[in-house]
Give the backbone structure.
Amino acid sequence: MKTKERATISDAEWEVMRVVWTNKQTTSREIIAILESKMNWKPATIKTLIGRLVEKGMLQAKPEGNKYLYQAAVSEEESVEEKSSAFFEHICNKKAGKTLAYLLEEAELSFDDVGLLEKVLQQKKQEAVTEVSCKCTPGQCNCKASYDEA
Amino acid sequence: MKTKERATISDAEWEVMRVVWTNKQTTSREIIAILESKMNWKPATIKTLIGRLVEKGMLQAKPEGNKYLYQAAVSEEESVEEKSSAFFEHICNKKAGKTLAYLLEEAELSFDDVGLLEKVLQQKKQEAVTEVSCKCTPGQCNCKASYDEA
DNA sequence: ATCTATAGTTTACATTTGTAGTCGTGTTTT
DNA sequence: AAAACACGACTACAAATGTAAACTATAGAT
């Protein structure tokens, strides 16, 4: 049924991706060096993850002598956005605002961040609606009756 | 190594939880009625998910005659927060602000939401720092050299 | 009292994920 | 050249997840 959608990056694989995203062009040796202690993984484990990421098309492996140079085939932004969107699919649209407020509270922000957020928020204020539309399947959220919400 | 952490709610299971969170007290019949068409799941599938959620301690099953009344054993807020925190562990602290800005842009917000967010943001402005501390393992983000960032 | 619809329990099975060992083959070192 | 090593490929294997059939007990219908 699935529209041949892009495979997802698992948590363990994500650790590897972060290394590759950080080091544009890297080797398995370097990835292993960076993750072995942080994750307490055996080199073999990391090799497996690299292999899977290549299979999934998330990593590109350029032959370099008898080994490979790895580089990301998907951007970090793109991936983060995908993962976060997936997360928001778990909650009702109407709860997005409150959830964002929560995340905001939890975050450590710089003045610049706050500035950026203020700007975006100002913009959102323009497009703000009186009532966010709930697209949930009946029975999966309590929005349908707008009057039963404060 | 893991501190006997609470099991997680998988995506499929999450669908069931949403029904239970919405209907404080519910029956498998109702859960099935709600999800069968939305998810294109067979009743058996939903029964399995319910069973697993009970095992995991996410659902409480109160005997009611020969069947059960199900209710959530964990709150939706708590669960959403856990899932979102897990997500933010995937990115460098320094990127949290930009990511939030992205999420904000993507969200459909009401005036109330904007108001709430403004309030929270004002508060964050107080506690804002000049530079967010990066806690990443070297090699997993580019923050270490604060001067190589604009 | 019997039949039947139903809810829960058990079993099933492929895929994904986490975690890793082994093997073959070049590469580096001595 | 021989030994050691490094890297990718292949294999392994348990747990989690998605998906569901089969079986069982039972409450309600007739």
Residues 27-29, 43, 47, 50-51, 66-68 of chain B lie near DNA strand C (CB under 10 Å from a C1'). Chain B touches chain A through 67 residues (CB under 8 Å). The beta strands of chain B are 59-64, 67-72.
